[in-house]
Amino acid sequence: MYKVLVSDPISDLGIQQLVDAADIIVDKNPGLSEDELTAIIGDYDALLVRSQTRVTAKIMEAGKKLKVVGRAGVGVDNIDLEAATQRGIIVINAPDGNTITTCEHTFAMMMAVARHIPQAYLKTVSGTWDRKSFLGVELRNKTLGVLGMGRIGSEVAKRAKAFGMNIMGYDPFMTEERAEKLGVKLASVDEIVREADFMTVHTPLTPETRHMIGAKQFEVMKPGMRIINCARGGIIDEIALVDAADKGIVAGAAFDVFEVEPPAADHPFLKHPKIIVTPHLGASTVEAQENVAIDVSEQVLHILRDEPFMNAVNMPPIPALLQSKLQPYFALGEKLGSFIAQSTEGGVQEIVVSFAGELAELDTQPLTRYIVRGVLSHHLGNEQVNVVNSMHLAKIRDVNIVIQKSHTAKDFTNLVTVALRTKKEERSVSGTLLTGYGPRIVQIDKYPVDVTPEGNLILISHNDKPGIIGRVGTLLGTNDVNIATMQVGRQLVGGSAIMVLRVDKGTPKDVLDQLTSMPELNTAKEIILP
User: Fold this and answer.
1) Known active-site residue 261
2) Which of 92, 61, 202 is nearest to 145 (CA)?
3) What pLDDT band is residue 315 in, cutting at 50, 70 and 90?
4) CA-CA distance, 429 to 527, in Å (whole number)?
5) Which of 28, 357, 441, 498 has the fewest CB atoms within 10 Å, i.e. the most exposed one?
6) How far apart are CA 507 and CA 229, in angstroms?
7) Mean pLDDT value of segment 369-394
8) Distance between CA atoms of residues 201 and 153, nearest Å
9) What is the pLDDT confidence band of residue 346, given thresholds at 50, 70 and 90?
């Protein structure tokens, strides 16, 4: 018999399959303190939580029999993943349970903003019968731009077609073939901003997507745009949106999320006549709460019975000898993936990982997972991508993973190379561990370098001409950006070259724009590696 403890309020229907199982005993005991949970967890094989219970290292250390911690929801920031991994405890979540409910809330908001429903309701119940002030628009024959074509965005696109809408979709991983299957016109953010009548965002919040719709986009936006955000606060610049609504560029907006939640009492959205808001209700349906519990309960059953399972968010145990040999390369691999993703333009189509030297003798699958996580996290965010699901997320987004091995690593004992092929270009980066110095990036594309992969970097491609280094330094100094280190890589005197600068803080976008406008300088990209 297996014992399962439910320490947060979770739908009875959601855990019914556990209750009905002949080999499972379920105890519901919500509201326990850390000490209270620590005192009893030793009797249980599985723990089910939502967001209230904090599953700490102390609790897991006391859970001598604990095999799995299930989170009935998406986020797992209340669970110490590192402690779970060290003890071989599997942590699972329910990433798909909120898909339909968030999709439907998006449509509720879209219809509400198209027909002024909240405003008309308030005026009607106040005693005023006003049929003239709330002239709306139909969805039929309008163009909907969907930013983010993952699970939720794809479901929105399917339903929008039933309304007779034309769909433009943006996603860094979407292929032409997948777009065609969905009946979606693949487009850039700029094309959607200029051409769509409605726009809805379904991307994670990452440094790349923060304020992806801001003042610059509103300046070229098609007048009369209606915007819906049921994803994450911060994807759309709230202040810039209010300004665009005041100017008549935006005809209406519907937001379920805010940059800071709950919003301040004087937040401009709360009293703006063109903007409707709800208090983060995307996942707030009976069915969604039941679905996440059903999903996680099913996986707990599989794990306890040693059956195949899905949705793990931490690394399963690796044999000790293999772990000892690969562990030093995990951080390097993830940073190489992140570096190449940040330095490359276009949607990712193929990741080629090459292992040379002694690494070629090992099972490098665990290391590959870290590398792929580094690539995908740049686009999807750390919350969505982990070392267990990274390969699966790449597969469902049609990203091809190619592994190559060579016993020769030229000047290094081991060498890891990550090449990224996108719709626009192909680039590569190589790294190794140097005894006494730690992780190093030793080659970017065809250029040899020696760069520590951490902190705020600026990657510059330029022509090898006298004076360029001085002009770059002067421009950055004028803009209060201090250079800590500099590396220059070239193959031929006077030919193409790259420059990698480590700076003390983030580089403002306008400074990067100034760099790219300099003579003989081609591109300048900010790369942030924690």
Assistant:
1) yes
2) 202
3) low
4) 13
5) 28
6) 28
7) 85
8) 8
9) confident
Cα distance between residue 64 and residue 45, in whole Å: 8
Residue 316: predicted pLDDT: 62
Helical H runs in 171-285? 176-182, 189-195, 215-220, 238-246
DSSP tag of 236: B
Q: Which helix (H) or strand (E) holds 146?
A: strand 143-147
Instruction: Write down the CATH number for the domain with range 99-277.
Output: 3.40.50.720
Catalytic residue among 105, 202, 226, 232: 232
Locate tokens 């090898």: which residue?
A: 464
Alpha-carbon span 107 to 117, nearest angstrom = 13
- At 242 the three-state DSSP class reads helix
**For residue 336, which amino acid is it?**
L
Longest dimension (CA), the chain: 82
Tell the residue number behind the tokens 């994450």, with chain if given.
232
Which option is the CATH number for 318-406+414-452: 3.10.290.10, 3.40.50.150, 3.30.1330.90, 3.90.76.10? Answer: 3.30.1330.90
Q: What pLDDT digit, counting tens, does each position of 463-494 carry?
A: 999 999 999 999 999 999 999 999 999 888 88
Three-class SS string for 396-431? HCCCEEEEEEECCCCCCCEEEEEEEEECCCEEEEEE
Residue pointed to by tokens 């859970």: 63
* Beta carbons within 8 Å of 67's beta carbon, 6+ residues apart: 45, 46, 89, 90, 303, 304
Instruction: Indicate the pTM of the whole model.
Output: 0.74
Residues paired with residue 46 on neighbouring β-strands, in sequence order: 4, 68
Query: In the prediction, which pLDDT does 333 show?
Result: 96
What's the whole-number mean pLDDT along residues 240-261?
96
CATH 3.40.50.720 domain position(s) in the chain: 2-96+287-304, 99-277
The Cα 437–Cα 308 span in angstroms is 41
Judge whether residue 386 has pLDDT over 80: no
Over range 221-226, report the average pLDDT: 96
Mean pLDDT over all residues of the chain?
92
How does pLDDT run across 444-464, given as a tens digit for each residue?
999 999 999 999 999 999 999
54 is annotated as an active-site residue = no
Q: What is the pLDDT of residues 105-138, one digit of tens each?
A: 999 999 999 999 999 999 999 999 999 999 999 9
State the burial class of residue 519 (Cβ atoms within 10 Å of its Cβ: 0-12, 13-18, 19+). exposed
Domain boundaries for CATH 3.30.70.260 within the chain: 454-530
For residue 317, is pLDDT > 70? Answer: no
Q: What is the CATH number of domain 454-530?
A: 3.30.70.260
Secondary-structure class of domain 2-96+287-304 per CATH: alpha beta
With tokens 């433009």, the residue in question is: 168
SS3 386: coil
Q: Using CA atoms, how far apart are residues 361 and 155, in angstroms rounded to an integer?
A: 44
* Per annotation, catalytic residue among 151, 211, 280, 490: 280
